[in-house]
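question for whoever is on the cluster today: can someone run the full assembly for these? two chains, 467 residues total. i dont have access anymore since they changed the login thing
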Amino acid sequence: MERKPQEAQLTTAPTWRRDDRALWRRSGARFVVLAPEHDEALVLEGTAALTWELLAEPIAEGELFALLAEYFGVTRDEVGEELSPFLERLLGYGAVYRP
Amino acid sequence: MNSTELLSRVASYGLPDRVGPIAGQPLDGTAWAGLMSPVRYQRLIGHLSRAVEAGDLPVTDEQRAEVAEQDLENCVRALHLDRRLLELTAQLESDGIEVVVLKGTANAHLIYPDPATRAFGDNDLLFRAAQFEDAVQALKELGYVRQVAPPQREFALRFSKGATLKGPEGDEADLHRNLVFGTFGFAIELDGLFDSCVKFELGGRRVRALGPETRLLHACYHSALGDPDPRYSSLRDVAQMLAFGTHDNRRVLELARRWRSTAVLARAFRLCREHLGVELKGPLVSAVAGYEPTRRERRAIASYVGENRHYAAKVAASLPYLDGVGTKIAFLRASALPSEEFIESRGNEPRSAWIRRGLQSLLQGGLR
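^ ran it for u. tokens below:
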């Protein structure tokens, strides 16, 4: 059976996962992350904390956006608009990577 | 509920029979301040935070914010210590030095469901006796400074417990060649500690820690002999392992027999009951219940936590634990009349006063 275009898009979208070298702790509803080569820890709250939880296993970007869209009752595009810069920031910080 | 009872409820929160509300309503300002100060010292902020989070300790908004802030600070401190641990172990292992992580860090990752629960303030590392001085040297090359000089060189090589070093960024590393100084320490099969190690994952690396049985025994040594008033977090480690640990009870008892430390276990369990207010259960607890320490064991324990504890008292109490006349003589020679540098590094007491106090401690007893 042929895949629908949207499913094909999901499988080719980038996958995100935590960098194993990043140290982290949970503090209440927040996460504190210390990435390699950084002296300043990152405190993640709200959607950022939820995203960190979802990144416990490698996850396709589309799936991540879809899960959060469903959770917050918004569209995937809206989630992507908010989340993409955050993921890029985590990537730059060294807490996550795209395998 | 007075402040001591409240503290023990926080320290024991989550243990069997200690699930559920600690208090019915938020504490007033005085009671809250009376709780938070010892919580910090006793390294219980993680336990307190979990009780607040679960709603088992009702708090005001201000109190909630204070707990959240301190828990966060504790997490940040722990992450920096974890980072330093990874750097140290990587360097030591690349130098061919075997290293095993002890106490707070290992316990946080291995015995609690969430490592943030267990606060700790330094890194404790165990080395094979033959590699201990190499490990000290390796840390010195990384900028660490030894805090207390050994009494004599032979003492450091053959009989010491270890050394504390302070890092360039103010962090502390306790380097161990034994789990405890003197007496009971001499009966520990040190090389055997490395045979039963387990590993835990930290920052993408596998780090070595003591096995479940030796880890429990070490927690008992630390609780029973480390300080006359042991930290509640250390006692909680013992209670946590007894309740949820994966140790083999028969093996723990067998090791305790061989290490001549049943009295240490009995004291650690008693302190847990008294300070945490919990009823410990299980075959291990039953096996040492009612154990009466011998005169030699009482003297040994008093040399650590008695009113007249002193280096000289530990030296004297250690002699029965050493095998062979030659070893006893070597120990006395290495321990006697420690260097000026050693005495100075332990405080501002003049050498003559320090020696006089040591002699007095030998003539007096007393166990708190």
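summary bc i know u wont read the tokens: DSSP finds 18 helices and seven strands in chain B. Strands of chain B lie at 100-102, 123-126, 145-146, 162-166, 172-176, 198-202, 205-209.
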